[in-house]
Amino acid sequence: MSTAASAATGAAIPKLLPKYFHQYVGNATVFQALKSYEHIAFVKYINSVYNLAPLTKWGLSIVPMVGVVTGSPSVEKIDFNTSVALANTGFIWTVYAMLIQPQNAGSRALALVNFCMGSVNGYNAYRRYQYDNRQQK
């Protein structure tokens, strides 16, 4: 176990984690190659794990949100099980994001995007459930 990495974070590094990854424990910088460009505000914002996680999650969540607004895909093409799984995942991670201490703009943005993902996919699951019930009658 790397004592320098564990001393820097104040936490023990899991033994199953390969030594190569010890350098990243407790390091909020995502891309070391961008470190010399962090004098640019946007690069510094993107290169932080606290801001990159919500931005990545928004990228994954935007497609279902656009689908709800535009009405596509049609309700026949929505997979009920996938929508329920994504809704549950969104709501579970919303709670987790609210437990992160200390709270900052990144953790709140992560909670917001997870809540949106849960809500949108929950709505899609509801639409598919209603459609399936109408088809059975």
Structural class: mainly alpha
Number of helices: 5
What is the count of distinct domains? Answer: 2
Task: Please write the string of helix (H) and strand (E) elements.
Answer: HHHHH
Largest sheet: none
Shape: elongated
Low-confidence stretches: 5-9
- Percent of residues in helices comes to 55-70%
* Rg, Cα atoms, Å: 20 Å
Number-wise, the strands total 0
Portion in beta strands = under 5%
- The pLDDT mean sits at 81
Q: What gap, in angstroms, lies between the N and C termini?
A: 63 Å
Features of the shown structure:
137 residues, mainly alpha, elongated
Question: Can you put this structure into words, describing what you see?
Answer:
- It is found in: Mitochondrion inner membrane.
- Mediates the uptake of pyruvate into mitochondria.
- Belongs to the mitochondrial pyruvate carrier (MPC) (TC 2.A.105) family.
- One of its GO terms (biological process) is pyruvate import into mitochondria.
- It is a single chain.
- This protein has helices at 3-9, 41-46, 49-70, 80-99, 105-136.
- With 137 residues, the chain is an all-alpha fold.
- Helix 3 (49-70) runs parallel beside helix 5 and helix 4 runs antiparallel to helix 5.
- The longest helix is centred in the last third of the chain and has 32 residues, at 105-136.
- The chain is elongated and about 60 Å long.
